[in-house]
Each structure stands twice: as structure tokens, then as C-alpha cells.
Amino acid sequence: MQLSHTAYLVLASVSGLSACTAPKPVSVEQAMAQCTERARSAVKPDVSVGVGIGIGRRVRTGVGIGIELSSDYLKGTPPEEVYETCVVAKSGEKPTEPLKL
Predict the structure, then answer these.
(1) How far apart, in whole angstroms, are the C-alpha atoms of residue 89 and residue 95?
(2) pLDDT tens digit string along 23-39?
(3) In angstroms, rounded to a whole number, what is the distance separating the alpha carbons of residues 80 and 98?
(4) What is the pTM of this model?
(5) How do the domains of the chain map onto residue ranges?
(6) CA–CA distances in Å: residue 62 to residues 5, 49, 59, 66, 100
(7) Could you give the CA distance from residue 87 to residue 93 in angstroms, rounded to a whole number?
(8) How many angstroms separate the CA atoms of 41 and 71, rounded?
(9) Cβ-proximal residues to 63 (8 Å cutoff; 6+ apart), any chain
């Protein structure tokens, strides 16, 4: 069976639209666990420090510092607001427990 150009366009459109559907909501418990981390990042920056030493023909050392700032932290959004908004967005329901940092 041979498909016409119109049929191919319809199939391509339907396939493209199915890729644009919203993700399936997760359980409110899963959302609360995931969103606690996001709320935590609204309270303070995440800082990491690394130190390394390599020995080969000569000794090499290295130091690295990383700072991660969330947009919620920069905007000053309260962590409780971040948590509730995140849980509702992921699960479609309000949190059943308050935020515990």
C-alpha cells in the first residue's frame, strides 16, 4: 500500500504532537521528595571544593571550587513557596506534608 504525500503529512503532524504532550504526573510522595531538594537550593548556594594530587614524572596538584546558585535563591523566593509550587506542578496535588529542610 502506498501512502500519499497528504497521509505522510498527517502522520508526521500526529507524531509531532504526541511528542509535545505534558509529562505524566508523578505521585505526590515522589514529587515531595524531588521538590525538597529544589527548595533546599532556594535557601543557600551549593558549594563544592575539590583537591587533587597526581604523581607521575612530576607531582601535580589541583584545586577546584564550584558554586551553584538557583534562580529561586537569586530571586529570594521562600523555600516553602518553591516546594509547594514544585509539588503541584509535578503531581497536580498539594503537598500532604510541610517542607522539612
Answers:
(1) 11
(2) 688 999 999 999 999 99
(3) 8
(4) 0.64
(5) 25-101
(6) 60, 11, 10, 13, 37
(7) 7
(8) 9
(9) 49, 50, 51, 52
